[in-house]
User: Fold this.
Amino acid sequence: MKKGWFIFLVIIVVLAGASYAVLTLDFNRFNKERYYIQITQDGEKIEDRLDNGETMIRYGYKGDAVNDEGKHKELEFSADKQLRKGAYLMLYVNKEGEVTSYDEVSKKDMPKEAS
Assistant:
């Protein structure tokens, strides 16, 4: 009987841990290569029409980004608002070269190759 309770508790702990991981991990940032870029111009306005007829507006950016090792890559990404000129961004890039997310960082967080 004690063995059955122990197995039950182990299963509950494993499920709770898995649930916590799924709810807290951001898979757009997890296991991605990081590149850095400075915003120097306004984004290009992009309008997408949704199936329900609504229009979604995004702003497209492209430019030369650099990673911690100094490797340069031309990247394109979009944001749901105009990004501030002069802002420094850390881009999360998947294996296919697509930007999945970004975070604004300070200039001191930029690798020296990107400054």
